[in-house]
Amino acid sequence: MSFGEELFILSKAFPKEELYSLTSQLRRAVDSIALNIAEGATGNSQAEFRKFVGYYLSSLAEVVTCLHKAKLRGYIEEESFQNSYKQAFDLMNSIAAFRNTLKSNDK
After folding, report:
1. Contact (CB, 8 A) for 22 and 66
2. d(CA 26, CA 66)
3. Which of 2, 51, 68, 99 is the most exposed place for a label (fewest CB within 10 A)?
């Protein structure tokens, strides 16, 4: 949740012409992270929760791509990029490890 709020604030500095493009995409992707966990947690099975954790990981990958685009376009400084990228990387590793603890119906 706090990661999402940090990126929301960071995206406020993006140019106005990005409001309906990169700014919106980043905000929707970062909000989707928390929303997918919440939605999956209300499911009836670990398999369903595991599916939503996968969506979480996909949204997080989208956030990372948006961060790269923002950096390439000069909207964020290297230090901000590195800080956000590290947080995303740590979240990705944590949630991937958590997902591996959930039983899958694939077998």
Report:
1. yes
2. 6
3. 2
Degrees to nearest 5, angle at CA 4 with 3 and 5: 95
Question: What 3 state SS string does the chain have?
Answer: CHHHHHHHHHHCCCCHHHCCCHHHHHHHHHHHHHHHHHHHHCCCCHHHHHHHHHHHHHHHHHHHHHHHHHHHCCCCCHHHHHHHHHHHHHHHHHHHHHHHHCCCCCC
**Nearest 5°: CA angle at 84, between 83 and 87?**
90
pLDDT of residue 11: 97
Handedness of CA 90, 94, 97, 103 (dihedral sign): negative
Backbone angles phi, psi at 64, to 5 degrees: -60, -40
What's the pTM value of the predicted model, to 2 decimals? Answer: 0.88
Lowest mean pLDDT among 10-14, 15-19, 38-42: 38-42
| Length of the chain as a residue count | 107
